[in-house]
Amino acid sequence: CLVDLEGLNMRHLWRPGVKALLRMIEVVEDNYPETLGRLLIVRAPRVFPVLWTLISPFINENTRQKFLIYSGSNYQGPGGLVDYLDKEVIPDFLGGECVCNVPEGGLVPKSLYLMEEEQEHTDQLRQWRETYQSASVLRGAPHEVAVEILEGESVITWDFDILRGDVVFSLYHSKQMPQPGCQEPGARAGGQLMDKGWVLGVDYSRVEAPLVCREGESIQGSHVTRWPGIYLLQWQMHSPPGNAACSLPGVEDVLTALHSPGPKCKLLYYYEVLASEDFRGSMSSLESCTSGFSQLSATTSSSSGQSHSS
């Protein structure tokens, strides 16, 4: 960071302004530590030691060591700006080659504004598409992801955003792969995977309590697996109490949902399977701290952190 203090005088040491500067330093120190590479202060006037005396006690010692202060024109010689910056990015009025079209002491012309928001938005969307998958959940037709666990102790982590509607998220375990099965080990996502003939407690078991996720919420969580086999992440449309849809709807329900223009839920989701050796400490401590559904969700019930098995 290059700071030019040309023109600083006692009039700038206005008490509310100095207090605001100290508050900004406090916020940066508390929330963004060790993000500064080097701070180069040039053309420091005689009044600068007064300002430095006021603010330096509020700056961390490691950060203060990153400050270089130049008075007069000694920033132009050996040990000056060229030791830290390329000449093409040093402003011309400080001896560099970068021509600045902003009038000194004036406003930055709008013609010089750098519009990065659109590019940043495009980059963010691209990253989302590369990382997150989208899914639509219809009434009677849940979206499910089958994750194959080859060792007993692994960690399944998930992160998803509810874009539209309310859904119920559940996690199940089975010793057999749903039909149609996977062609290769790992995971498979493709709408409803669970066989409609399966019986809860016989063919598969629930290992995490269902969680109602509301529109607009972002949910993160993890589960420490106990047994190898197939784990099913399931999102289904939330139904009002007394009219809840079963987890395994019949064929007619699915066909009706697919061919009807009724409401549907949309979500973006990401999941990952991590091996137990990737964690420091015991698996039991990991489970006690982070297992279950996100504590950030306002709808997380007191029972959401409990694990269930058949």
TrEMBL record:
<protein>
    <submittedName>
        <fullName>SEC14-like protein 5</fullName>
    </submittedName>
</protein>
<dbReference type="InterPro" id="IPR001251">
    <property type="entry name" value="CRAL-TRIO_dom"/>
</dbReference>
<dbReference type="InterPro" id="IPR036598">
    <property type="entry name" value="GOLD_dom_sf"/>
</dbReference>
<dbReference type="InterPro" id="IPR051064">
    <property type="entry name" value="SEC14/CRAL-TRIO_domain"/>
</dbReference>
<feature type="domain" description="CRAL-TRIO">
    <location>
        <begin position="1"/>
        <end position="102"/>
    </location>
</feature>
<dbReference type="InterPro" id="IPR036865">
    <property type="entry name" value="CRAL-TRIO_dom_sf"/>
</dbReference>
<dbReference type="InterPro" id="IPR009038">
    <property type="entry name" value="GOLD_dom"/>
</dbReference>
<feature type="domain" description="GOLD">
    <location>
        <begin position="129"/>
        <end position="273"/>
    </location>
</feature>
<dbReference type="GO" id="GO:0005737">
    <property type="term" value="C:cytoplasm"/>
</dbReference>
<dbReference type="Pfam" id="PF00650">
    <property type="entry name" value="CRAL_TRIO"/>
</dbReference>
